[in-house]
Structure formats: C-alpha cells, structure tokens
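A reminder from the course coordinator: this example appears on the midterm review sheet, so study it carefully.

Given structure:
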C-alpha cells in the first residue's frame, strides 16, 4: 500500500522538479528577446522627415535687405543657362504672420530636398518679414508666399531684358510638401499670373528710379507708429490750421472789383 502511494507520487515529484527548469528556460529566452528589442527602434522614422527637419536652415540662404542685391541677380552673359531662376519662400512670425506660418514653413523645409534633387533645380532662398520688414514692404509681399523669379542674363549689348516675377500665395492650414515642390517640379508656377505692377522688384517704376527701398522704409515707419500718435498729430495740425485762419486779416478788395459808391453830397 505504501509502495503504491510512493509510485503514485513519483510523477508529481517529477513534474515539480521539472517546473523550475522550464521557468528558467522561459526566462532565458525572454531576457534575450528583450535585450534584442531594446537595441532596435520602436518605430521606423520617416526618412524624408529625418533628412529634412533642419535642411532649410543649413542649405537655404536667408534673403535680407543687406544681401538681396548681391544674392538675387542675373548671371554673366556667357553663363549657362540663359535664365537665372529663383524660388524665394516668404515667411514670418508673430508680427507679420500672426504665428500661423508653422505648417507652411514645415512644408517648405520638406520640399527643399525634393527640389534640389531635380536636374533643373532653381536657386532657393527664404525671406523672413519679421526680421526684414523693409524689404517685404519694398516688394509688397506678405507671408506665407512663394516668389518665383526668372532673371534673364544680359544681352551681348549689355542691355537687361525684363525679369519675370510670380507671387504664389500659400494656404496656411492645408499646404503640403508636395504642393510646394510641385511649383517647380510640375511647373505649377505657370498657373499664377506674371506680376507687372508698380511694386515689381526689378522692373517696376520704383525699382527703375531706385525708390523701392526708400518706399519700403516709409511704409515700415508708418506701420510701427501707433494709431494714437497719428490721431494726435492730425488733431494738432487741424488746430494749427484753424487758429491761423482765425488770426488772418480780412481779405483785401481785389483789383478788378468795382469801386464803392460815393456818399451823396449834402445840400447847402
């Protein structure tokens, strides 16, 4: 009876002895897998995002009031190709874009690597209207915007053909990287009309006479003066005009006016 009990207990003892070994084996594989997983990224990053997060800050020059004439200009008459093409992204901050240019700026940063990979890639630059309000005012542009410029090179007689400028407005909330890249890659700039107005940065009347930058300074000065200062100035000028009119002598008789009638003679 005792022998049968012992025999019946042997399988249970055998299982009890095997359980620690199974747990050790399971723990060993679990540890190896966790170590292997810890060395791998939890998610695969987007290569486009990883590559272009800060590319615009590195490879795209900033257009400023000091360097715009030296940076954006046609090449030599003997250079190739015959037209210098520029894409200038106009952005801003809280002053000129009210803090809503973030999405458009990310889209432009992402489009830089796509545009530069094109065999006919244009020259790229960006203009910050918060930092260069005078230049933005002189060119009559506001963010977010993309300026597509084509500057022909001088002719053999050194005459300069007119430049082509297109201002492409960018949607602040729905713009994407592919849409900005398509401006060049798919020639979407041709859908926008050529600007030929008064504020043309190269061939407009102000630019021809060298008055576009002074006009930009004037517009910038008016924008920084508070409205209450304008009201006080207008009030002082109007009061000065009214006081001068009140103190002015009565108007003299004009030379062509008929003489006054003589007083009748009294009878003697």
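Designed residues:
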């Amino acid at each position: 009876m005792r022998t049968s009990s012992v025999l019946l207990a042997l399988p249970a003892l055998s299982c009890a002895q095997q359980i620690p070994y199974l747990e050790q084996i399971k723990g060993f594989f679990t540890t190896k897998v966790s170590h292997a997983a810890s060395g791998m990224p939890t998610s695969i990053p987007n290569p486009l995002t990883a590559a272009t997060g800060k590319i615009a800050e590195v490879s795209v020059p900033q257009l400023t009031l000091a360097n715009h004439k030296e940076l954006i200009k046609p090449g030599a008459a003997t250079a190739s190709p015959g037209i210098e093409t520029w894409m200038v992204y106009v952005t801003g901050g809280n002053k000129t874009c009210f803090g809503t240019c973030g999405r458009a700026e990310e889209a432009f940063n992402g489009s830089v690597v796509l545009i530069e990979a094109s065999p006919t890639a244009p020259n790229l630059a960006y203009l910050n209207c918060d930092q260069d309000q005078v230049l933005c005012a002189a060119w009559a542009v506001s963010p977010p915007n993309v300026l597509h410029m084509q500057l022909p090179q001088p002719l053999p007689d050194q005459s300069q053909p007119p430049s082509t400028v297109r201002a492409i407005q960018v949607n602040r909330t729905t713009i994407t990287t592919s849409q900005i890249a398509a401006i060049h890659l798919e020639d979407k700039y041709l859908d926008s009309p050529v600007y030929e107005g008064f504020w043309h940065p190269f061939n407009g009347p102000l630019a021809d006479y060298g008055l576009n930058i002074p006009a930009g300074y004037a517009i910038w000065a008016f924008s920084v003066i508070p409205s209450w200062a304008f009201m006080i100035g207008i009030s002082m000028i109007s009061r000065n005009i009214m006081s001068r009119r009140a103190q002015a002598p009565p108007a003299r008789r004009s030379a062509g006016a008929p003489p006054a009638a003589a007083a009748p003679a009294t009878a003697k």
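The chain is about 45% helix and 10% strand. The longest strand covers residues 83-91.
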